[in-house]
């Protein structure tokens, strides 16, 4: 009989193996199951994040189905990978991941398709395992009906004697409500004992649950740590379960934000990814979607049904309803929308006003710039306090290349003007309404670039009179006007 792990209980290092090799056929997708996103992270990313938050010394993700895509998605996360080329069961997958472990720490087994398992629960599991001096601790839960799960059979002293799979359970064992989550924390002997797991079963697979008997045969104590919320180990095996997991995660995120001082007017209608950072006193109106590396500073307001991705919103800024921001930066006190679109590369300075149906792309607008209506501003820098009239277009594309333009400070651009890039407009210049500016405008000058107006009297009656038959049939009101003449 081997002796229990002699290492100090609280100082042992932690290694984490994430099993993520399954095909996930019930998802009915070309995308590997563990890469389906939940609240902005692929499912397997949640397991990796939990391991990182626990301070794991090493994290090994066992890949198989779609291995290249899974490994590419987790590149840069500081994890190692082990390939399970043949799907021979959970025990075999564990051994694939354990090959590179140092063999002197606790080993935690997680899964790439259970994104709801929280760091807090895992910390409690690990602390209980170490405090009790267990060789193996099984994370369990309790349900009124545990159909589909392996059942936990405890001994008189509360230790786990057996895990019985449902297909092998008696009627009495099926009545047990405590189930096996499949999450385990084990002492350093786990890799060694796992090599003894056999495949003498109907499926000829190597089951990780067999470690329980191997530990008990070695004199190790096997205990259970029961979840307070069994939903934490809810797997996402199909699209319905994926949606359920997303709903739970969205609720967690909004509740945590509200605890930290964020006002969310209709929490069930918003979608906020885990990667988003929001300061206190921010107001989120109904239907808001916040994704990616978005940062929202204190006092900002995000209007109803706005979509903000990978953007920074300054303190006190207002994003009015139905606006879309992609990789943009909005300065303090600025306001955007409604129905505005800020595309990648947009940087708005302090107090900038972007109104309804204004689109910007790779545009830098300095402090106090105003573009109130129906404009397109692409590949342009605009100086402080410049006014951009309704219908202004920066024509930045010549059919082959994009060109950059610059507009100085204090410029007034009249309505329905077009700047044909590349153009430079000096400080305090004026551009007359309706101008198509195709030359640079010096500082303080006024540009008038439009044809001289000429009124041809009686033209309409002559033109429409020649189309009298069509007018009579399709435009009766016009026919009546012609007759009056």
Your description of this structure?
The chain has 485 residues and is an alpha/beta fold. The protein is 21% helix and 27% strand. Strand 4, helix 2 (67-73) and strand 5 (80-83) form a beta-alpha-beta unit. It is elongated. The mean pLDDT is 93.
Topology:
Layout (H helix, E strand, L loop, with lengths): L13 E7 L16 E2 L2 E2 H11 L4 E6 L3 H7 L6 E4 L6 H9 L7 E6 L7 H14 L3 E7 L8 E4 L5 E5 L6 H4 L3 E9 L3 H5 L16 H7 L4 E5 L12 H21 L3 E2 L6 E2 L4 E2 L4 E2 L4 E3 L3 E2 L4 E2 L4 E3 L2 E2 L4 E2 L4 E3 L2 E2 L4 E2 L4 E2 L4 E2 L4 E4 L2 E7 L4 E4 L2 E7 L4 E2 L4 E3 L9 E3 L4 E2 L4 E3 L3 E2 L4 E2 L4 E2 L8 E2 L11 H7 L2 H7 L1 H9 L1
Brief descriptors of the model:
485 residues; alpha/beta; 14-stranded parallel β-sheet; 21% helix; elongated; EC 2.7.7.23
Could you give a short description of this structure?
The chain is an alpha/beta fold and 485 residues long.
Average the pLDDT over all residues and give the rounded result: 93
Radius of gyration: 33 Å
Shape: elongated
Biggest beta sheet summary: 14 strands, parallel
How many separate helices?
11
Low-confidence stretches: none
Report how far apart the termini are.
Answer: 115 Å
Our estimate of the beta-strand percent is 25-35%
Helix coverage percent of residues? 10-25%
Class from helix and strand fractions: alpha/beta
List how many beta strands DSSP finds.
Answer: 39
